[in-house]
Amino acid sequence: xxxxxxxxxxxxxxxxxxxxxxxxxxxxxxxxxxxxxxxxxxxxxxxxxxxxxxxxxxxxxxxxxxxxxxxxxxxxxxxxxxxxxxxxxxxxxxxxxxxxxxxxxxxxxxxxxxxxxxxxxxxxxxxxxxxxxxxxxxxxxxxxxxxxxxxxxxxxxxxxxxxxxxxxxxxxxxxxxxxxxxxxxxxxxxxxxxxxxxxxxxxxxxxxxxxxxxxxxxxxxxxxxxxxxxxxxxxxxxxxxxxxxxxxxxxxxxxxxxxxxxxxxxxxxxxxxxxxxxxxxxxxxxxxxxxxxxxxxxxxxxxxxxxxxxxxxxxxxxx
Length: 319
Fold this sequence. Notes:
alpha/beta, seven-stranded parallel β-sheet, five-stranded mixed β-sheet, Udp-n-acetylmuramoylalanyl-d-glutamate--2,6- Diaminopimelate Ligase, Chain: A, domain 1
């Protein structure tokens, strides 16, 4: 058995997505793998739900809720006996010293996951694990920061003795929400297409445009939600000629019956909100805060990112 302890020193660094996706990649290689997490907080409970959504039975929830190194350690080692590799997602509730004690107790190797813009500041945290640290995965690398990452960030980590296992670029799919989640967070209601509520929305466009044909404007984005007043069938029909997931119809207006019919034919959901378009866009600007790793499409996308950016064979050799 091999135990891999995945830890970060800040919230929402991407531990859940990394653990679930790496486990799935290793399983595809024929390795018997499971993921576990001890529950110490409400956020830990939410992560358990996310694991269940993407991994199903390949997740083992640890029952220990009060932190005691020997108790947690014994349960982790018990789960690890039945698999080739156990990935343990660390809880952010624990202190650095508690993480270190637990790692020593279970004889684990450590991977530190950090956001790109926090990587240098996290050096003291990751180096505290000493020889148990395999290396750091830098997550959320933005599009135009690659040069700085290779010329400044990675050399700084390596100078501190930290092996950089890979750079994971920021990805729109991983930051997306389902149509149903958008409806709930905007306090809207479904007027049609609720059965398509699990579709992911990767971008938003506002209806109403200039002299160019509507189809030309709307075709610039795929897997989108279109925000438009409910009494604008001209804009709505133009949008329906392009790849989209849902309408967010503002002002509390219901669309005409023909738009509802065509939306159903195209498997496009219709959400109605009472707020006006500007207020709705302000709310949409905060939706990303509610994004979770809870969808099979996100698992598939992150697996591709791991395959492209991390040497999994080399990682497997140290487990």
